[in-house]
Amino acid sequence: MAPIKDYPQRYALTGELHARPFPSLKAPATAAFLAIKQPSDAASRDRTADFEHLAALLDHYGAPRPDANATHYFGAMGKYWLKWEQHTELVTYMVIREDLSARPFDPAEFDVFPDYWLNDAPGGRITSALLRVMERPQEDETISAHLRDWFVPESLAVASVLDGAAVVASDFRIDSSGHLRIAVFPDAATGSRRIGRIVQRLCEIELYKSASMLGFSMVREVGPQLNTLDTKLTDLMAEMRGPAARAEDTLHALLDISVDLETLAAQSAFRFGATGAYQAIVDQRIEALRETRFMGRQGFAEFMMRRYEPAMRTVQSAERRLGTMSARSIRASDLLRTRVDVERSAQNQAILASMDKRADLQLRLQRTVEGLSVVAISYYAVSLAGYLLYPVAEATSLSKGVLTAAVTLPVVAVVWGLIRRLRKHLD
Question: Which domain-ending residue is among 320, 349, 378?
Fold first, then answer.
């Protein structure tokens, strides 16, 4: 049997499902996480610059480079392990070291990224975090003591995840060294792959939380402009009701507002869509942790509900508001078009009435002209008849005046009859 021909992208599409494996690590371990975003939009993002930046880091440690078209990488980098991923508009680095520093969350742990390399980054840091993975103590009070020393109690989120496989904690605050702190206390029976999945999901929660907050930042920037356009649109629709409003002026003002709204919608469409997608990923990653309450403290889901969800609802509200304002401008255009049509119909009726009046005047003038024409034609006809009757006047001894008077009425009657007949024929 002849082999079936494969679709050109079959293996690439299947491989994409396995393209980003979870890291594998055991306690104790530390990890430095870094996410970089280029200042440009995703459509114009320079992915080559991201790869060259990765290659520079690997060259610094003498590690082999991946394929130039790679969008992910996981491999040894000296005494470290590096996991690199290229996302739609972000690129992330996670460097893992299989030991603990004497000082918890030591800023020196981030020195794995050379200073010159950080300065040459093709974008800005959107988030960075230090993760400390240490075996879960026998007493939960020991964990509580660590949490009091490492985190801000007011915003601390801590939970037991994956049916007690580990205890995770973070306050989602940037410390004095510029990084977030995340602590993981895996159970002794938890395997390295499961620990790796926990660490990966925690990093993704922080990554997509930070990325989705870009939408909140954008809403703050465009909020005053939306308020101004909303006020203008409301005032414009109120003025449309007034009899003194000119449709042409109203149309120009409405066109300016519509252009501004469409420009805002086009500029914010990608960010609104990305924010919704990132929020969904954050919720999914938290749900995948299957967290349970630890010593009565708030968990990650509760923290996000109190601190993160309001920001996302603000973004959603701004998106709906922009769509509503665009719909209002369309309805205002329809109302204005209806008003213009009504005014145009009234003008057309006035023009038709004027034409009727003008036609009536023309008819009256025509009848007047017809009467004058009968007189004028009859005058010339009587004159010609008078010349024709000169011989008759000499033969009958009648005067020209008598003969002219005798033929005047018949001539006038004949001329009037001919003109009336001609007018009926034309009608």
Answer: 349
Retrieve residue 423's tokens.
């007018």
Which residues share a beta bridge with 96?
A: 31, 81
Q: pLDDT tens digits, residue range 93-106?
A: 999 999 999 999 99
Q: Please check whether residues 342 and 225 belong to one and the same domain.
A: yes
Give the separation between CA 134 and CA 136, rounded to whole angstroms.
Answer: 6
Is the domain of 31 the same as that of 173?
yes
Q: How far is CA 61 from CA 58, 80, 91, 380, in A?
A: 5, 10, 20, 124
Whether omega for the bond prior to residue 28 falls within 30 degrees of 0, making it cis, is yes
Please report the sign of the dihedral spanned by the C-alpha atoms of residue 246, residue 250, residue 253, residue 255: negative
341 vs 199, more confident:
199
324 vs 327: CA distance, rounded Å:
5
Residues 160 and 264 in one domain: no
Alpha-carbon gap, residue 254 to 336, rounded angstroms: 9
Kindly tell me if the per-residue pLDDT of 278 is higher than 90: yes
Domain that holds residue 222: 212-349
> 254-271 burial, b for 16+ CB within 10 Å, e for fewer?
beebbebbeebeeebeeb
Type of residue found at 47: R
Tens of pLDDT along 374-385? Answer: 777 777 777 777
β-bridge mates for residue 83, sequence order: 74, 94
